[in-house]
Amino acid sequence: MPIPIPGRQYTIQDENSLSQIAARAYGDFTLWPRIWEANQFKLKSGDPNVIFPGEVIIIPLLPEREIVKASTSDKNLSGKAKDEITIVIDGLEIIPTSTKIIRTMHTAADGWSATIPWQEGEDPELDKRVAPYAYPPAAVYIGGELIINGLLYTPQSSKSADGTVKHLQGFSFTADLIDSTMKPPYEKNNVTLKQRADELVKPFGIDAIFNDDFGGPFDRVTAKETDSVFSHLLLLAKQRSLLISSTEDGNLSFTKAAKGKPVTTLEEDKQGAQAFNATFDGRKRFNTYRALGQSPLGAKVGIAKDSKVPRSRFFTFQADETISGDIEQAAKWQRSKQLAEALTIPFPVTSWFDQEGRRWKENTLIEVVSPTLHLSKGFTFLIKSVEYNDSTTGKTATLNLIPPQVYTGEELVDPWS
């Protein structure tokens, strides 16, 4: 089936409707009146609900979706609706039929995916940008606000009875730190986390941003040739109770989990919550975590407990060389990792914004009241990550929630014990 492309003619097919054509051309079925206004005097019926196969119409350009005269380093775009997703690939705004964006507080890279109608030769400018291994700069905005800045890494072509499409996948610049292995020197003595991070990220053209205290120097840090840059930095960061994430403009961020009061409350059967369901897997938790380390002064052992687990369940792991006292912190962060897997609750909501109109953001505290989740009295969770979805069925979000103590290193307040 031919693909309706803005700025070009389109021949109406069997079972087409204007809303269906708008969904494929603009990624938004509600924009069908634009097509009707541009073609109402051409169509035989004079009724937007009645169109005939074989009729030729023009798919009008939307002024706000033409090539944007902005670089992908700009943090704001003007003239955008509050809930509008804009994807700019090397200066060209693309028009997806569906989009997914993920922002996290606990991984080095954020990502997005989008599907667009595509036919080779129809748009040479687009062809250049979605060619294999082009690595063009790509930025994603919500409401004109920069959300993810990085590169388009993966264009995938797919053909079916409905036509040819491109499935695009992009990540923040920090994805290179996850994929790339370490270079010499593999060992450093008396170095701080900031010094180590600055040294390692500089070749990638990004900065290491520290929003919290990074602590004193390590006696010694070592890495293997096969370690990724991110895994090495993560091992050090968790000994300082710091999380590694990506800033909106694509730099590497070291920060701590949010503390304080929740910014809003989500209550079952109210305020747009879609579903309340969770699985509580007791096998992902242990009552004792043992970190084994080695320093110039000899072997070290760190212990962290999860007092909420009544069984004798042990987890032992190898930690990096640390200064005195940090081996216990390494044990606590391994405990945090296991708890993060066990206690994360995916929470779907019907809007990208809370009841005060604020966009849901990672590393934010919210209160949840839900008898279904055994939280009748309410509990304050931390938003670990947010997934924004935009498709022809509407705009929704999924909040991945976790008890905040998992990342603060404090004694876990377990709402289910």
What does this entry show, briefly?
With about 425 residues, the protein is an alpha+beta fold. The chain has helices at about 20-25, 30-40, 125-130, 175-180, 195-200, 230-235, 325-345, 405-410; strands at about 10, 55-60, 85-90, 90-95, 100-105, 110-115, 135-140, 145-160, 165-170, 185-190, 210, 220, 245, 250-255, 265, 290-295, 300-305, 315-320, 345-350, 365-370, 375-390, 395-400.
Task: Supply the key terms.
417 residues; alpha+beta; Membrane-bound Lytic Murein Transglycosylase D, Chain A; Phage tail proteins - horseshoe like beta roll fold; Phage tail protein beta-alpha-beta fold; 4 domains; twelve-stranded mixed sheet; three-stranded mixed sheet
The averaged pLDDT comes out at 85
Largest sheet features = 12 strands, mixed
Identify the CATH class of the largest domain. Alpha Beta
Q: How many runs of DSSP E, i.e. beta strands?
A: 22
The name of the CATH architecture of the largest domain is 2-Layer Sandwich
Q: State the CATH topology of the largest domain.
A: Phage tail proteins - 2 layer sandwich fold
Number of structural units classed as domains: 4
Instruction: Give unreliable regions as ranges.
Output: 64-72
What is the distance, rounded to the nearest whole angstrom, between the alpha carbons of the first and last residues? 56 Å
- Beta-strand percentage? 25-35%
Q: What are the secondary-structure elements, in order, as H or E?
A: EHHEEEEEHEEEHEHEEHEEEEEEHEEEEH
